[in-house]
Structures are given as C-alpha cells and as structure tokens.
Amino acid sequence: MAHAVISCLHANLAATEAVLCDIDQLGIDTITCLGDLVGYGPQPNEVVELIRARQIPSCQGCWDEDIIEGLNSCECSYPSQLAERRGQRAHHWTAAQLSEENKAFLASLPLSLRRDRLLFVHGSPNSQHEYLLPDMNAFAALERVEAAQADTLFCGHTHRPYVRELREGVIKMRLRRAVANPGPDIEREVDLPVRRIVNAGSVGEPRHGGTSATYVIHHEQDDSVEIREVPYDVERTCQAIVAAGLPPLFAWRLRHGFEYAERADDASHVCER
User: Fold this and answer.
1) Pairwise CA distance, residues 239 & 248, whole Å
2) Does domain 2-167+196-256 sit in CATH 3.40.30.10?
C-alpha cells in the first residue's frame, strides 16, 4: 500500500490540483497533508476548500497558525527585514481574503498526526516554526524523532525535500562515583536505534532549485520513500499573484524555484516582536 504526503500548498491552486491529479493517477487513496495550506499564494479559499472537499487529514502549519492567532510568533527565520515585510503583507492579505468558515477549519487542525510509528508534523514535534534542515546536528535530529516516539518523522516547512536516515548512533556516558563510594568511573555506551526524517518539500512554493511541485510517497510494504516532482502551470499562479496585488517577487521566485532575500542590502535582521 502506498501513502502520499504533501506539504506547504501555500494557496497555489494550480500546483495543488496537479499534485492531487498525479496521486490519483497512481491509484493512491491515502493522503496526509503537513500544513501551510495558505500564505504567499493567491488562492487561499480555493486550496482550503479543495483539501476540505477531499477530506485530506492535515496538521496545522505555521501560516495556518498565524492566520488564526495573529503574528505573535517570532519569525526571525526571515532572512531580512524586507522579506519580513513582504511576509506581513501577504499575511494581512490572506487573512482578509479567507472566509470565516475556512478560518475555523484552519483553527481546528491538530499540531500533529500519527499512524502507528509514523509521525506527521509541519516543522518539528516541538513547533510549527522549527526547521529540521538536512544538515542539522545528527544527535539533535535523532532527539526530535526519538522524543516523539516515532520511527519515521514526516515534516515540511523548509520547502526542500529530503530523506535522512539516522543510523549507527552511539551515546557514551561516564558515571562518576560518589565521594562516599570511591572507585573508577563507570563508562557505558548505548546504541541508538535507526530513525528517519522525511521532508515532503513543497507543493505550492518549491525552493529546491526547480519549479516543479514536490511531495513524497511512502511505500508501506517495504518502508521505502519516493520523492516525486510534478510540473504544473507556474504562469497561471504567477499571473494570479500579480493580479491579486501580492508582492511580484513571489511570482519571480516561483519561476526560479528558490527563496530570494536581500541579504546584502539588509544583512542585520532584528525581530520586531
């Protein structure tokens, strides 16, 4: 049995439709969404309503949270103040566009979903806003998975897909004896189990260097994971971004497939919250 995992749709209807069509053509019936249904893109209501109509289980992403709770979380992950202002502009536009019914749906989404030893989150088990990057310290990455009591952790948020196996980990401990019971220190080693982090990338705003939407398929029979890329009508979304009055740079980065920020012009970002 195959199971599709999608993430970071970001109100991009053309990309979402293309990915769901690809999943349907493969005959996959089980889909899990890792959140960020809205944000940046020009069709927030249409994308939310499509996920609702398909009854796709979804956890809450950082954009989904911020639309409901307001911009209260620290967003120092923005690489510059100019990038943060664009994000704020998109936030206010999205909040104004979304229907109350769709806002209530986003508010109802859980922070995580679980299927046996598979855990599904947006950013990490700790927060929708935490990035689990592929080069994250191996022990810290293993701690995120092991603390969540999972064998495989599915996440999104980075917009770049990857599969990372955490194996051959060893914790070395040295136990020092109490003064009242002198003697040599006791050394022990604990072998850590193999764990895995799977990032589904992004349907609606890929940043892996290409314009195709990405998602992953988990083949449950052999526990393998496949990263899929799906081309879609990028220009359709870019034209809708400009027509909606959203920052034109959002269209530019969709056409190029990576993040853009004015690091040289504004290198010293200071959080405003």
Assistant:
1) 9
2) no
